[in-house]
Amino acid sequence: MTIGSHVRIARDAVVEAAWLGVGVRVGARAVVGKAAIVKDYCVIAADAVVPDEAVLAPCSIVAGSPARVVGSVSPGAIAAWPREAELLVRRAMSATGPKAA
Predict the structure, then answer these.
(1) Amino acid 75: pLDDT
(2) Rounded to two decimals, what is the model's pTM?
């Protein structure tokens, strides 16, 4: 596994990815599957499940199970990293809607 600089992996996340790019954020309880490639400045929301061998484009914001793109990181947000990243994680979590009980 290769992990870029300034990567944050939250509590209880499971990461089996082949590669995490620069500035990636992985939310709490997220799962990143085997051999997944997560390119620079991606945001993976809490509880998201990135499938095995998935390739996430740079600056993608993903959420859900299976994870799907719900937004993108703007150049302005990258300039304000990591503060802006935490806001993007919260927004991505709200994009998935309420959890089923």
Answers:
(1) 75
(2) 0.81
